[in-house]
Amino acid sequence: MSSAKRQNNVGHILTQGVGLCALLTGFYTAQVVAQENYAVAQDNYVVAGSAYDLDSNKLIYRELYTALDENKTVRVDYVTPDGQTFASKTLDYNGEPFQPSFTFKDTRDNEFASAHFQGGRLLLTHGVKDTKTEKTIYDNARLVIDAGFDSYIQLNWDKLASGKTLKFDFALPTKLNTVQLEVRKIKAADSPVYDANYGREWIYFRIAPAKKFVSFFADPINLAYDPNGKYLVRFYGRSNIDDDKGGPQDVRIEYEYTN
User: Fold this and answer.
1) In the prediction, which pLDDT does 159 show?
2) Residue 21 has what pLDDT?
3) What is the CA angle 93-175-111, rounded to 5?
């Protein structure tokens, strides 16, 4: 990921936990098995997200999640359509489910990012190759980290389903900062991820900057959840994964579950 074009889009912000994204993106409650002819079974992947280009509908990459292990960690591998791993992330859920520590690395340009607690403080780290910058975040009680946004939605499901808008702070390791976001339920017809053929029962959410000034410079992300199990099934917005030239890409990610 190149740092020059970082974080002008909420989708990139959230999936920096990245993705969702890609959300969306090491889901704490997922008990799933992925598909296709990859070495999925051998690597014990339990969730698969397929990312498609919004313009061409071409498959760009997949994000494959392992099950929560005995150490409460999850590994996410980002792979090309032909199965070559080019980036990976480790999520640690030993703390609050909406605050997983994580380490991410993209081997294409040797960029890395992480968020780790040291006592009551959160250390954010970002770098490319031999360059590294860090910042300590002290006020982190309400902070949501990376894929923890999925747990945050699940933990607040009833409030969101009733129409309440919730605000939360989100960690941005690549900016060494935090941003306040808000999430709310929207009508199916107002969501670009709505599919009348098989998404009639889904619940749709939109996440956007909480401050109006910031919202002028950032597109929202749209999410669809299956209420039976509260599983994230579709993500729509800016990916946390750059294209091969280091540029941003907007994607639709379809998540698959077996349980």
Assistant:
1) 97
2) 34
3) 75
Nearest to 10 by CA among 125, 163, 175, 130: 175
With a cut of 70, list the residues of the chain below it in pLDDT.
1-43, 212-218, 258-259
Residue 198 Cα distances to 119, 188, 195, 226, 257, angstroms: 46, 12, 6, 11, 15
Nearest to 217, CA basis, from 2, 23, 8, 45: 8
Quick check: 114 and 103 in contact, CB under 8 A?
A: yes
Which one-letter amino acid corresponds to residue 162?
S
Distances (CA, A) of 127 to 105, 124, 132, 174: 10, 11, 4, 8
Task: Report pLDDT for 184.
Answer: 97
Half-sphere exposure of 196 (CA within 13 A, CB side): 2
pLDDT at residue number 214: 54
Which residues, other chains included, contact 55 with Cβ-Cβ below 8 Å and sequence gap of 6+?
none
- In our burial notation (b when 16+ CB lie closer than 10 A, e otherwise), range 140-151 reads beebbbbbbbbb
Tokens of 161: 């389903």
